[in-house]
Amino acid sequence: MPRAEPSPIWKHEPDEHDFPAAAAYLSLLMLDDLAAVKVRMLRASPLTTRKAKDILRASGLPLLARDSPHVAADLEKIAAGERLSPCLVLRGRKGSPAVVADGYHRVCASYWTDENCDVPIVLAG
Question: What total number of domains does the chain contain?
Fold first, then answer.
């Protein structure tokens, strides 16, 4: 019988350092001023959940390998029962994919434990 993977345990809110990381990433996709607006929207948005597989599909991002360094580190945290920070996601609009502004590796690690697991996300439009 295959060994069951432990489920991720999540914090109740994102880590503070996730927001500057999201701003840095978003500044590659849009002007800095707009990235700052999007981060303010993320800060003001409530926590919700989505399935790991749906986040990857909506974003169009590929599933990273289990041995990708950051994914492997998050899988180790999951195995140790450490809490993960929720992910920061911008909703896709007008045919554009959703943007995982922070937490891509955590989504992938969660998927590897169970593609149907609920991932806490802050979702802003």
Answer: 1
Question: In the Cβ-directed half-sphere of 88, how many Cα atoms lie within 13 Å?
Answer: 25
Can you tell me the distance from the alpha carbon of 39 to that of 125, in angstroms, rounded to the nearest whole number? 11
Q: What is the pLDDT of residues 43-68, one digit of tens each?
A: 999 999 999 999 999 999 999 999 99
Cα-Cα-Cα-Cα dihedral sign, residues 14, 99, 5, 79: negative
The DSSP line for 18-35 is HHHHHHHHHTTTS-HHHH
Residue 96 lies in a domain: yes
120: domain range? Answer: 14-124
pTM (whole model) above 0.90: yes
Residue 90 β-bridge partners: 99, 124
CATH value at residue 53:
3.90.1530
pLDDT reading at 1 higher than 60 = no
CB 91 within 8 A of CB 15: no
In a domain, 2, yes or no: no
